[in-house]
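Intended use. Records like the one below are meant for learning the mapping from a protein sequence to its folded structure. Do not use them to infer anything beyond what is encoded.
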Amino acid sequence: MTKDLQKKMLEYIQIQKTVTTGELCDKFNISESSSRRFLQKMSDQGKIQRFHGGAIFLEDEDSS
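Structure written out for the chain above:
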């Protein structure tokens, strides 16, 4: 998965606030395994919180 695609996906999650893996698959034409890998990477970086089947964007404390 390219960095550009990852950036677009994170921006999409930031706008939507909550997304499902299926939604990401449809929007970005990727497989469910790619969607899950992306969400895990973003979760490890503290940018999102995962839940079964999707994720929630975590607001930056600096942006409030």
